[in-house]
Amino acid sequence: MGLVDYNSSSDDEMPSAPTAYAPSITTMTTRITAAPDVSLEDPMQLRQSLIKPTDRSITHNMSYDQLSAPEAGPQNPFLGTDATSRKRKNVPTGYAEQSGISDATFRAQHRTFNSLGYAAVGEGFVGDQNAVVAHGGKDVVQLRPSKKETEAIRRKRQNKGDAAVLDGDGAYLGPWARYNEAAMAIRDDEEGEEYEEEEAAEEEEVVAPVSNPIIDKAGREYLDVNTGGVGKENSEFHGTDMYDYQGRSYMHVPQDLDVDLKKEPGTQTNFIPKKLVHTWKGHTKPITALRFFPGAGHLLLSSSSDSKVKIWDVYHQRELLRTYNGHSKAVTDITFTPTGENFLSASYDRYMKLWDTETGKCLHRFTTGKIPHVIRFNPSQPHEFLAGMSDKKIVQFDTRTEEMVQEYDHHLGPVNTITFVDEDRRFITTSDDKSLRAWEYGIPVPIKFIAEPYMYSMVRAAPHPSGKYVAYQSGDNQVVVYAATDKFRQNRKKAFRGHNNAGYAIDIDISPDGQFLMSGDSGGWLCFWDWKSCKLYHKFQASDGPVVAAQWHPQETSKVASAGLDCVIKYWD
User: Fold this and answer.
1) What are φ and ψ of residue 150, in 5° steps?
2) 3 state DSSP class of 66
């Protein structure tokens, strides 16, 4: 193509029409596409094909509608960034999806579950289905008394001297009206007779002979739930022989064994158990605590929700030796005196009772009117013990006078653990208020208070044999360690993880040589960690349900006892 002459032009002039000597030339131009064509037929499918979860930038030009389009289906809360990885737990007990529910609805369903045994979840119910049918699926707010029930309640109140029937209907003139002396005299006489009858019944109840317990229609023995079993304590011996050929009871430490049970605990190396040696069955409800006999460990004491305490023979026949009956509700905790001659039991019937281990006699009873959660004797002063109560207090009793001698009142929730440290001159307590407090024994003012935002409730404790540390079972699926010295600081380097304990008060224990830490698990496992490295060495299935009680034998190298909600005590070696 030859040269072409173009007309000159300026910004002020419009291009003129082509002339004869300046012909029009058609040039070849390249078409530029600023953005590719985007199909709007299926924006959801297009978005999924263009954008991947792993992409950090968009390489295509997409419209606002496509970018703001919702995801296809709900997000799987159990997957991580890719389909093969598992997402970490968002709550200590596992995985929970977020849902919207008002506080009033939640409180109503929570009260319904505690009272009636079921709660509404979406379209269905969880809990006791028979109770759902019996109450028609109603919650406690909907279950209001009917007109007939309200009338019956009103008549019942009127029979006891209600103002509405003293002078007839409409006789009530307000709180400042004068009393009808004749009607009030009649009511006082009736109430006096009722009070005398109740007082006589109470006297009868207290002096009732121990050998005459209450028997129901099925022939089963039970105790009065309103008195805590006071006056009805008894025990039953189940062993083969009460005494041996030398007249010694089961309290005598056996000498005909391969192991010396009188040596100092912790003088030999411990090992992790591997097999089941023996099983004890006798309790009818979940077991709450296990305690070996102090020092020797030839006896094993157990408490249960069936309101009974039993003692078992660890050697020889390994039989049930004695049952202690005296509580009317579930037993929460048990503890031996330093010599083992006596032990203390605490129960939901609000009583703490001191027993003679050998004869089974109830020696003393203690109560503050509240539920004791944990009890511990002072090893240096065995005639005194501490009890952590449900009313946030720690009370100190003297077994010689049956009187409370001190009260420690600084916690903001029920007390869970009591641990003596510093040669029994101090003790450490934890509570549901997610705090830790250290006290001087006998002085009701804490010397140390620890409460951090990341702390959970610590429900069980185990002192290290060295006396320098205390391990605590924390509610966030780990065991934490605090120093038992002046600072009482948390040892951040020691945290034992790998088990599940959220929602249960699972016991922990440390081997006598201080080498291993043992804990139960809500899934039925028994877990063992190395104390120095905090490494989970070994765990095995010990029960079908949660293992809530676990104790290391004080003299054997590798023997432990465990129990849980399956009502069975297992002995491992």
Assistant:
1) -65, -40
2) helix
Confirm whether 501 is domain-assigned.
Answer: yes
User: Per residue in 311-346, pLDDT tens?
Assistant: 999 998 899 999 999 999 999 999 999 999 999 999
Asked, for residue 406, whether it belongs to a domain, the answer is yes
End-to-end CA distance of the chain: 103
CATH of the domain at 506: 2.130.10.10
pTM tops 0.70: no
* Tens-digit pLDDT profile for residues 146-178: 788 888 887 776 655 444 444 455 555 556 665
Find the radius of gyration of the CA atoms of the chain.
37
Q: In this structure, is residue 302 part of a structural domain?
A: yes
CA distance 34 to 98: 44
Domain annotation covers residue 60: no
Range of the domain at 496: 233-572
The CA distances from residue 56 to 6, 30, 77, in Å, are: 51, 33, 21
Which residues in 475-559 belong to E strands, given as ranges? 478-483, 490-497, 508-510, 516-520, 525-530, 536-541, 547-552
CA-to-CA dists, residue 293 to 148, 296, 318, angstroms: 59, 6, 14
How many structural domains are present in the chain? Answer: 1
Which residues in 380-394 are b (16+ Cβ under 10 Å) and which e? eeeebbbbbbbebbb
SS3 percent helix, strand, coil of the chain, rounded to 5, is 15, 30, 55
Phi, psi (degrees; rounded to nearest 5) at 67: -70, -30
SS3 state of residue 429: strand
Closest of 358, 425, 366 to residue 399, by C-alpha: 366
Give CA–CA dist 290/301, Å, rounded. Answer: 6
Q: Which two tokens stand for residue 51?
A: 């954008």
Q: What is the pLDDT of residues 556-569, one digit of tens each?
A: 989 999 998 999 99
How many CB atoms lie under 10 A from the CB of residue 255? Answer: 8
Would you call 147 helix, strand, or coil by DSSP? Answer: helix
How far apart are the C-alpha atoms of 418 and 346, rounded to whole Å? 14
C-beta separation of 526 from 539 below 8 A: yes
Separation between Cα atoms, residue 256 and residue 388, nearest integer Å? 40
Which secondary-structure segment (H or E) carries 46? helix 43-50
